[in-house]
Amino acid sequence: MNILVINAGSSSLKYQLYNMSTETAIAKGRVERIGMDSSILTHEVDHQPEVREVSEILDHTTAIKKVLDMLTHRKFGVLRNIADIQAVGHRVVHGGESFSESVLVDANVKLEIRRLFDLAPLHNPAHMMGITAVEDNLPEVPQAVVFDTAFHQTMPPSSYLYAIPTVLYRKHKIRRYGFHGTSHDYVSQRTAEFLGKPLSQLKLITCHIGNGASCTAILHGKSYDTSMGMTPLEGLMMGTRSGDLDPAVVPHTINKEDLTLNEVSSMLNKHSGLIAISGLSSDMREIVEAMNEGNESAKLAFDMYAYRIRKYIGAYIAAMDGADAIVFTAGVGENSDVLRKTVCERLTFFGVKLDEERNSVRSSEPRTITTDDSAVAVLVVPTNEELLIARDTYRLVKNKTAGQASF
Questions:
Q1: Angle, vertex CA 6, rays to CA 243 and CA 19, nearest 5
Q2: 285 among annotated binding-site residues
Q3: Is 148 designated active site?
Q4: Euclidean distance between CA atoms 326 and 361, whole angstroms
Q5: pLDDT tens profile 203-227
């Protein structure tokens, strides 16, 4: 079965085509600048030069059509025709309390995703455009949605409720939802496989550290607590997001700077974090380079970033009464040995013993970066959210087909 995985943004669209018999991505790419006459489609197939096409792509329906044309292209494609795509899986950021697992798309699912627009105004509407665009181009092909929040629906009320009047939760569902759930789920499964132990017996702390970042306490295979909240703004310091701060900062800043609520929201989401403290960049590679050259603002940004990751790790060790492994993943987590070293070198109280030689190695496979006698293992496990989306889509479609056959 060939499954097309879509991650639709408001003006962009990423895709990967999976052959599920081997669980390999046989093609991938992205469409950028949707809505403009100079949109860019980039298409990649293993062992072939990247293909780049500039054209007018005014909406997501046209973008999907361009992707399908490229996948079936006589020279650059990997499929004979679009009928070779048996299912499409979508990443959807927010599923609220409505979805605790991945589901096949139907009228009720689409209605609920729209109802959740208020909780994810920058993401869910774009995902809905992606779903509709696939319907326009592949009307008979089943679609599935995999929610970033679904994995975290196992959190107990003591983890997900805020200490505010409960009427706000009952009426408006104001609570912690958590994000990056697809990544935390995938990485926890890979960690259990790598350690050769049942996931149901492990206490894990997974650290998804990229431009957006979150930590999750995974107790016996289920999310117990996570750093992001009702929105992805809460939690760790990130590339452009502030992370945790005193809520009083918002009205105080509005009064002092004569800003609107939207302007403060933009400040906290797009102009804070690493880029605000360093004054240079939101890219950890550039921060480390500047720090090594003696830039004090870059060093402060790096130190704050690492310190907050370490604080959450310590909190989650306390929350679960221990940890079997701490796992780093995503762009920064997988590639920055300097960050991992800085975080781990002050976790010695918990018995963490970093092996600097192992930590310096780069690999596309899971690996341990602590010594053999470390009381808590620290791992680097590359994430693959697209593969998990493809797996869930495959499972849902296969189960539906089997159910129809038995009926």
A1: 125
A2: yes
A3: yes
A4: 17
A5: 999 999 999 999 999 999 999 999 9
Q: How far apart are CA 379 and CA 191, in angstroms?
A: 8
pLDDT at residue 150 tops 90: yes
Residue 404: predicted pLDDT: 65
Instruction: For 225, list phi and psi in degrees, rounded to 5.
Output: -165, 155
Residue 123 pLDDT more than 90? no
284 annotated as belonging to a binding site for a ligand = yes
Q: Is 205 known as a binding-site position?
A: no
Band the pLDDT of 405: cuts 50, 70, 90: low
357: CB partners within 8 A, 6+ apart: none
Q: Are 91 and 389 in contact (CB under 8 A)?
A: yes
pLDDT band, very low/low/confident/very high, at 270 (cuts 50, 70, 90) = very high
Query: According to the annotation, is 283 in a ligand binding site?
Result: yes
Which band of pLDDT confidence, cut at 50, 70 and 90, is reported for residue 285? very high
User: Is 335 one of the annotated binding-site residues?
Assistant: yes
401: pLDDT strictly greater than 90: no
| Catalytic option among 37, 69, 118, 148 | 148
Would you state the structure tokens that stand for residue 232, as one six-digit string? 């992805």
Is 333 known to sit in a ligand binding site? yes
Question: For residue 197, is pLDDT > 50?
Answer: yes
Instruction: Please tell me the pTM assigned to this model.
Output: 0.93
Q: How far apart are the first and last CA of the chain?
A: 22
Mean pLDDT of the residues in the chain: 95
The reply to whether 141 sits in an annotated binding site is no
Q: What is the mean pLDDT of residues 167-192?
A: 97
